[in-house]
Amino acid sequence: MRFFNRVTLQTPESVELEFTLAGIGNRAYALLIDYIVWGLILIVFLLTWAFLSIQFIGVIEDLIGSETRLELWLISIQLLLYFFIYVGYFVFFETLWQGQTPGKRYVKIRVIRDDGRPVRLQQATLRALLRPVDDLFFLGVFFIALGKREKRIGDWVAGTLVIQEEKPITAANFSLSESATTLANQLQTQADLSRLLPDDFAVIREYLQRRGGMTAEARTQLSRQLATQVKDIIDLENVPQKVTANVFLEAVYLAYQQQSSTDSSRYRISDGESPRDLS
After folding, report:
1. What is the pLDDT of residue 172?
2. DSSP for the chain?
3. How much is the CA Rg of the chain, to the nearest whole Å?
4. CA-based, 20 to 30 A from 20: which of 76, 164, 200, 256?
């Protein structure tokens, strides 16, 4: 019996990745948190709007010339700003936080594109604009519950999925060179590994696992392509000379694991455990 709905995606590099879909429960929980945060933002806006309206109501009334028309104008502007705040909240966070809002981050789910890539401004905007349609008569709930990929209308139009965020850190079942270990230690200080998403790490791991079954030409081409993309992602200026693309990817794999282990240990220490308890 499958308790979780999983989906397999193929990246533009022809690497297959498997994800667990977020599920309607997690999505509803995240949305509830987002609506609470959005409500607090809206309260601040209303207080600010009321203050500014009182300050400038005389000036505006002189320009418009009618109290009735003034009220209509204020209501229209207010409704328009409501919509911009509503849509802007989801667009802003999903674009800035790589597919996460405060609610999604708390629940540990994320929006990605159908090819496994992080969402961009275009996808986040389409999802947000169609959210009122999904909320109308709970249409989104029906689409999520009845669809194999658990997509609401906004997901179908934007070409996105909502998945559970999984840290793909597992023991390697492939060989790693000694030079990769040395380079991994250097990357800890020379590169910004925090910019590497779990999905990016999964692509690297998938390549390292499957490279043995590739032809030499395909392995060389794909490793160079991945190495170039990863180098840009982690903001590394230069790769040491005589380091092959394969060794570089192995080093990034090890460095990411080391950093994640360190971050996890720091979290446990800050949560009240002593270093002795972690040994």
Report:
1. 52
2. --SS-EEEEE-TTS-EEEEEB--HHHHHHHHHHHHHHHHHHHHHHHHHHHHHHHHHHHHHHHHH--HHHHHHHHHHHHHHHHHHHHHHHHHHHHHHTTS--HHHHHHTEEEEETTSPBP-HHHHHHHHHTHHHHHGGGHHHHHHHHSTT---HHHHHHTEEEEE---------S---HHHHHHHHHHHHHS-GGG--HHHHHHHHHHHHHGGGS-HHHHHHHHHHHHHHHHHHTT-S-PPTT--HHHHHHHHHHHHHHHHHHHHHHHHHHTT--HHHH-
3. 24
4. 256
Residue reference for tokens 């987002």? 34
CA 4 vs. chain centroid, Å, equals 20
C-beta pairs of 22-29 under 8 Å, 24+ apart in sequence: 22/107, 22/109, 22/150, 22/162, 22/163, 22/164, 23/150, 23/164, 24/141, 24/144, 24/145, 24/150, 26/107, 26/109, 26/164, 27/109, 27/144, 27/162, 29/103, 29/107
Mean pLDDT to the nearest integer, 192-210:
81
pLDDT over 60 at 58, yes or no: yes
